[in-house]
Amino acid sequence: MDHPIIDDETELLQQVRRWLHERPYEATVSETHIVGELVRMREELLEAKEEDQPALMQQIEHHAAWAEQLRQRVAVTPVDPDNPYFAHLRLLEGGRTRDVFLGKTTRIGEGLRIVDWRNAPISRLFYRYTQGDDYEEELGNRVHIGEVLARRVVAVERGILVRIEAPEGSFVQTDTGWVQRHREAPRLAGGGGETVRAYALGEAQDRRMGTDLAGGRRRADKRLPDIAGLIDEDQFKLISAPDSGLVVIRGTAGSGKTTVALHRIAYLAYSDPEVDSERTLFVVASPALCNYVAHVLPALGVPKAQVVTFGAWCAEQRRRHFPKLPTTVRPDTPAAVVRLKLHPAFLIALTEQLERHRSASATPEQVIDDYLSTTTGRERLEAVFREHAPDLLTAEDWERVHRWMTQQAEDLQSWLDGDHEVAAGLDEEDDALLLRAWQLRIGSLRGRRGVPMRYRHIAVDEVQDFAPTEIQVLIDCLDSRRSLTLAGDTQQHVMTDAGFTSWNAFFGHLGLPGTEVETLRVSYRSSRPIVSFALALLGDLREDGDPPIVVRDGPPVEVFRFTDSGAAVAFLAIALTQLVEDEPLASIVLLTPNADVTAEYAGGLMQAEVPRVRRVMDHDFSFAPGIEVTEVAQVKGLEFDYVVIVEASARAYPDVPANRRLLHVAATRAIHQLWVTSVDEPSSILPREAL
Asked: What is the chain's percent helix, strand, coil content, to nearest 5?
């Protein structure tokens, strides 16, 4: 198809690529040379004609920013000609039109201007204004007044323009040429700007699973994309918050919490190179989420920051600080023991134990003694919990807890005394508690070289699934700036034993009462029917306040009932086979209540010769197109084009808060379309209007 926007963006891309190839980046420019150029241009400005002054001012601003980069020793990397930018602004100022491109590094010359979105002041125009808006902003050392003539997000793959998102529509390069799709672009709350999302592909007109059958491009790599060009104003405000202190991000599923936390690290690293090092941690709860986001920070120019699961990080630190303890982790810890050890009251008991023996030696052996004395001091432990959490455990639970912890302490002591034949082992929850006891008794945790561990920045995703004690361990590993980002959503709180009850209580346990929580209110991932369905699943657990803003529509959520699982598998086999054929790049997931159902459905679909079916175990997602079958508990934080929640029956999901949150998480993994199936009676959690 022919369209002026396609022609315009294609011509601009060719011009930029030609310029980059003909004028390779030279990294040998010295600060002295730049200062000399600044002096020369300012002298020219005094004698320049009025019509030439704006161009000279742009060059002066660029050279001044370049000199500042060199003074801060921030590395300037070349622009990649195969992917030079992700967004395009066309501005009208003083009767002159200019094009500005947003990318991951800065390059200016010969009338072309590519700027780093993290640092260049002019990038604020992209995030704060929409196409057609007038603006007045202080950028650099002067006020800019003008109009945004064009604001577009583009996708360039291997030097080829494949997608344009503009207010006039979405333009997609297919195997047969360009096609245009109409999309919604609503104004967000507050009127700050309009958001274009890569997934806004138009409304479905049929009830089949598969809503984009016109040959549109989809990401073959289903990991979290680098979408800096799609960040809205509220997200940008959080990303660019001051580099010290605590930033807390709350938002519904799909509102961009993880994206904001990752891009905040990239933003901080631009002005502080120490952020791009092992002294930065992005902490997640599951290996799947770790793999999902691991490639994003390198793509944002921050290759050295660590993306870790808290469990892996914590276990590594515990082994380093307590090498004499066994490395075995018990897989059969009773749930009552888990609840007790993760509850903030246990840390109170541990702290009281240390206070009673404050004069004892500051050694790892004493820390272990402190800890074992706390776990086996039944009378003191029960007294603390009667005061702070009287309803946490029943009398029967307490008996089970004390038997377990007494036996565990005896086995560990035997191990430490040299009897390595005994079946000694730690609970997973012991790692954070032992590290916290070290911090309270000895002081800072130690790095590999024995020096105090001091992180420049730590970001924690899905913080609602962490215990306050675990976050406290991380906080005390920060340097003096205490730069910390916490992102979470209480509506997705599925780790009910972790001790998180509310934001206020959580920050109270951390010693941070009154902490301000910033809320992201726009849901970008899922369509309007999916978001409405997911919120209905929560019932009374839904957070107070206005519902999230949803940027696009889509097909309705459908619930299918079957008499047996064999009929459900047969039905899905036909639908999924057709979907894979129609949309070979689509990511599809079947979410089950447990491993037995996963095995049944994965085996049935494979037997039906449905292509590209894969059973996911232990969070080993492929993040590739195809069909993956796994339990709901494994997909926290991930997203898929199509989701089928299977066996959503009353037997599998009785109406309790944990199951409401679990089904909410399952539903909000879907980008385009959601189906639900049930054998026998559907769960009463499902909204009646969907049945």
From this structure: 40, 20, 40
| Dist. CA 328–CA 430, nearest whole Å | 12
CA distances to 9, 148, 182, 496, 498 from 397, in Å: 66, 65, 59, 17, 17
CA angle 265, 269, 272 (to 5 degrees): 135
Helices 344-356 and 378-388 meet at what angle, rounded to 10? 130
> What are the phi and psi torsion angles at 477 (to 5°)?
-100, 0
Give the pairing of strands 107-109 and 169-174: unpaired
pLDDT tens across 536-556, in order? 999 988 877 778 889 888 899
**Of the candidates 210, 206, 198, 184, the residue with the CA atom closest to the CA atom of residue 673:** 210
Query: Checking DSSP bridges between strand 112-116 and strand 107-109, what pairing results, if any?
Result: antiparallel
**12 token code pair:** 């601009």
How would you classify residue 552: left for phi > 0, otherwise alpha for psi between -120 and 50, otherwise beta?
A: beta
Residue 545 · residue 528 · CB < 8 Å: no
Residue with tokens 């991380």: 474
Alpha helices in 485-582 (DSSP H): 503-509, 528-538, 565-582
Average pLDDT of the chain to the nearest whole number: 85
- In this structure, are residues 405 and 350 in contact, taking their beta carbons and an 8 Å threshold? no
* Helix boundaries (H) for 357-394: 364-376, 378-388
What pLDDT, on the 0 to 100 scale, is given for residue 194? 26
Q: Are 117 and 104 in contact (CB under 8 A)?
A: yes
User: Dihedral through CA 12, CA 18, CA 22, CA 24, nearest 10?
Assistant: 70
Question: How are beta strands 457-460 and 280-284 bridged, if at all?
Answer: parallel
Burial (CB count <10 Å: 0-12, 13-18, 19+), residue 400: middle
Pair 331, 455: CB distance under 8 Å: no
| Single-letter residue type at 539 | G
Helix axes 335-342, 395-416, angle to 10 degrees: 80
Largest CA distance in the chain: 89
Residues 16-51 pLDDT 10s: 999 998 887 655 455 556 666 666 776 676 777 766
Spatial distance between the Cα atoms of 674 and 527, rounded to a whole number of angstroms? 10
Residue 561, classified by CB atoms within 10 Å of its CB into exposed (0-12), middle (13-18) or buried (19+), is middle
CB under 8 Å, gap of 24 or more: what pairs does 597-600 form?
A: 597/565, 597/646, 597/647, 597/652, 598/629, 598/630, 598/631, 600/565, 600/569
Express as a percent the part of the chain with pLDDT over 70. 85
In angstroms, how far is CA 88 from the centroid of its own chain?
25
